[in-house]
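Q: Protein A?
A:
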Amino acid sequence: QARLMESGGGSVPAGGSLRLSCVASYRRDCMGWFRQAPGKEREGVATIFVGAGISQYGDSVKGRFTISHDKATNTLYLQMSSLKPEDTAIYYCAADRRLPCEFAGTWATWGRGTQVTVSS
């Protein structure tokens, strides 16, 4: 099973940018980012089929966030721009050995999360 470690979280003013990283111990076909605010359900942010670079985004982040993957370093990235206070959450990296990459599908491996806080 893959081991994942997120980094890059922090505090940023509304409208700012932040890049999250997730280092994986080895490659998985499907990787993604999820987020969860206190007392709220987990929300799918973005997924990527690593082999083809095909990605999908949740409606709330579409056009503002970009997911990418570096095969050489087994690192997943989430570039976040035009951040809003409602983006505040713990962001989790996830991976699975399956296609297609669907938010609602089973994700076998999870990182421990990194906090993103966006102030007004």
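Q: Protein B?
A:
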Amino acid sequence: QVQLRESGPGLVKPSQTLSLTCTVSGGSITTGIYYWSWIRQSPGKGLQWIGYIAYSGVTRYSPSLKSRTSMSRDTSNNQFSLQLSSVTPEDTAVYYCARGVIVAGFETKYDYWGQGTQVTVSS
């Protein structure tokens, strides 16, 4: 029974950094072959993968967001975090954390999701 919960400010000013934390319960973020991921959804764009921090600590980000994205983890508190810098109103979205697992040898399935948190970029 894995549960994920996003937390962080719901309003961020343009040019500032969006910071979110995902708290995981029911499983360790350092064990198992899992990819602790951030995904966002906006009305006109659908779901967009932002990146992950793997169980090993290795990170990988979407090419379109890589220059502005940083992910980290706090293993003592079983948490992982997202920082997205230099935000604009186009970054307004519902942000989800999720657990990714490789299936069929190649593709990723997200078997557990947080409830999502609305983040609005506005002055």
